Amino acid sequence: MIKCPITAESNSDLKEYGLDFCSLQDCVLCSFDSGEVLLNQGDPVEHLFIVLRGKIKVCMLAANGKDLTLCYYIANGILGDVEFVQENKSASATSIAAFPSACIRIPLNLNQEYLIHNITFMNQVARGLSTKLLNSSYAHITSALYSGEERLCSYILMAEHNGMFTEILSDVSKSIGISYRHLFRLLNDMCQRGVLEKRASGFIVLDRQYLGEKCARM
User: Minimal CB count within 10 Å: which of 59, 64, 175, 187?
Assistant: First the structure.
């Protein structure tokens, strides 16, 4: 993680959330490389993160610590908002930079009173939480109503970066609720159709239109 002072551009991003840089303490702009962890499930949440660019993978592990029960990506919005409005300040999920990303990091212990009493910011938090709730409901419905191929197409479009899909396939199979063997068959079939092209580092997306037409939609 690389930290640097807030720039004029980043200050403009803060204003979109109703925040004034001059009223925040120790607020910094952070850059994360791929694979760096922003929040770790079970650890205390000491900062809020406003995502400016890149893509953050949010995943939750089951009680056994092995199986993924939730996995989605965000390219903007707030990380740590769920814990912010709860008494339990332990991270409910792990947030990892899927690709190089930039966020504004806000220490909670120094800024909680200012944030709580900022109506514009709290409205933004409420909107973000409602969106996450709806997305979670859609995910449960999708797993019941859509085929494995449709769920896979949706996941590829969500996770790809610059036309490359590089996810760990065992995690993908758990996230979309199909067996690893079935996932492998679906990917091979897409390669044979010219939708994807297999490379050592993952898959190149060749036919985005096909993925868009087949993906699960609510």
Answer: 64
